[in-house]
Amino acid sequence: MMQPVLEVKNVTVRFGGVTAVDNASLTINRGDLIGFVGPNGAGKTTLMRVITGIVKPQEGEVLLEGRSLLGMSINQRIRAGLALAQQIVQPLRAMTLLENVALACGAAKTSNPLVAMRSFDR
């Protein structure tokens, strides 16, 4: 059986008396494409911040390719391939739709948006 790329196990985050994430678990395998959907305040961003190391959970753990990320700095997580890009509610207006999508695929590495999109490995 293939080892998951990312595992979140029983993560709980509390801010004072408010529980933002309550015993959340998920498994992501290579090639998976996922999205978090839910109302404001459901804990989506907080869970992403736990995965990337910005927020420390009170309970639970995060594993990347079977290795615990506990105690790993944000910079170490970035080097391991984890990062969080904040939501942009509206696209960059001075750019075309193609350029906006290419930027999300890493177009900063090339001046050709189509090259960036073709090289994007999901």
* SSE order, one letter for each helix or strand: EEHEEHHH
Structural class: alpha+beta
Largest sheet: 4 strands, antiparallel
Shape: globular
Q: Give the fraction of residues assigned to helices.
A: 10-25%
Please state the second-level CATH architecture of the largest domain: 3-Layer(aba) Sandwich
Domain unit count:
2
Could you explain the architecture of this structure?
- Helix 3 (97-104) crosses helix 4.
- The protein starts with 5 loop residues before the first strand and ends with a helix.
- It is 25% helix and 24% strand.
- The mean pLDDT is 84.
- With 122 residues, the chain is of the alpha+beta class.
- The longest helix is centred in the middle third of the chain and has 9 residues, at 44-52.
- It folds into two domains: 6-79, 3-Layer(aba) Sandwich (Rossmann fold); 88-122, no CATH class.
- It has four helices and four strands; from the N terminus they run E-E-H-E-E-H-H-H.
- A four-stranded antiparallel β-sheet has the order 2-1-3-4, covered by helices on one side.
Short description:
It contains four helices and four strands, in the order ββαββααα.
